[in-house]
């Protein structure tokens, strides 16, 4: 077996981790991995690095004309014209001729990923990856902000802190759940027209398998489902929901349902209370 330094598959292993090998060459490399422990270890390390690439870049706007520039370079290389590295940061400087050092430094790939000798389709794969990275990072950041808002609304201490965490109403128990109680608070969501409503219930009867408690947003005779929740052994449960400004609500009710799929109340009401949103100013009817 060849040593790690002498192994001719070193560069192909990096391309395999990037899923950039043609089918026939991929089969050859995978057959080699089955017999070479050193290359198998290198492949596992490459996979680990590739999985972290989307998280390695700082959030920033891409350079102007990036899309046209990269695609033009990839197309030129595929036709045997100027090298892929031409025009990229680092290209043409001493110690970084053409593609290898320029592209490697620009993408901040680890040193063991040697781009020398890669085929034109590697350039195209790199172009696709760079162009998709910005959109992926934007989506991750957007979802992270949404998750942070939801976690703030669902935090056990949220109802006791902050000017927007004051309890708006206490839902009283009905004869179907004596001793139960629920507190309701609302939370502003900056930048959006609406609020989070958070309900924390205690002392509710334990549910049978398949059952659920369902929150209802009530306006006159209209009932709109606000979501479902279950309770722990002590009868405690919570729910945080988003309510747009254009959804009128004057009361809240909680019913015990045979399943979590109802569009109208079917089981007994266990909690009820009025929510004067116009007076509180937290939500507008």
From TrEMBL:
It is found in: Cell membrane; Membrane. One of its GO terms (molecular function) is sigma factor antagonist activity. GO terms for biological process: regulation of translation. InterPro entries: Anti-sigma-K/W_factor, Anti_sigma_zinc_sf, RskA_C, Znf_put. Coiled coil: none annotated. The chain crosses the membrane at residues 118-138. It holds the Pfam family RskA_C. Residues 122-268 form the Anti-sigma K factor RskA C-terminal domain. Keywords: Cell membrane, Membrane, Transmembrane, Transmembrane helix. It is a single-pass membrane protein. It comes from the Bacteria. Residues 9-40 form the Putative zinc-finger domain. One of its GO terms (cellular component) is plasma membrane. Belongs to the zinc-associated anti-sigma factor (ZAS) superfamily. Anti-sigma-W factor family. This is Anti-sigma-W factor RsiW.
């Amino acid at each position: 077996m060849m040593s790690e330094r002498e192994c001719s598959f070193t560069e192909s292993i990096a391309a395999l981790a990037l899923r950039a090998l043609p089918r026939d060459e991929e089969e050859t490399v995978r057959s080699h991995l089955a017999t070479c422990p050193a290359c198998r270890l290198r492949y596992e390390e490459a996979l680990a690095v590739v999985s972290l690439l989307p998280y390695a870049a700082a959030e920033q706007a891409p350079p102007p004309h990036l899309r046209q520039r990269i695609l033009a370079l990839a197309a030129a290389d595929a036709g045997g014209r100027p090298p892929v590295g031409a025009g990229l940061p680092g290209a043409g400087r001493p110690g970084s001729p053409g593609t290898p050092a320029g592209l490697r430094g620009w993408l901040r790939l680890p040193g063991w990923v040697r781009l020398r000798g890669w085929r034109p389709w590697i350039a195209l794969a790199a172009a696709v990856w760079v162009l998709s990275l910005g959109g992926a990072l934007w989506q991750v950041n957007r979802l992270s902000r949404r998750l942070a808002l939801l976690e703030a609304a669902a935090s056990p201490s949220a109802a006791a802190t902050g000017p927007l965490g004051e309890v708006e109403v206490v839902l009283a128990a009905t004869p179907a759940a004596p001793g139960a109680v629920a507190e309701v608070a609302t939370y502003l969501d900056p930048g959006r027209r609406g609020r989070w409503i958070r309900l924390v219930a205690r002392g509710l009867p334990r549910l049978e398998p398949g059952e659920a408690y369902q929150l209802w947003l009530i306006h006159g005779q209209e009932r709109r489902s606000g979501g479902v929740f279950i309770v722990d052994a002590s009868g405690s449960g919570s729910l945080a929901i988003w309510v747009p400004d254009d959804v009128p609500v004057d009361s809240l009710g909680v019913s015990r349902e045979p399943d979590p799929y109802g569009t109208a109340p079917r089981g007994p009401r266990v909690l009820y209370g009025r929510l004067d949103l116009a007076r509180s100013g937290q939500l507008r009817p």
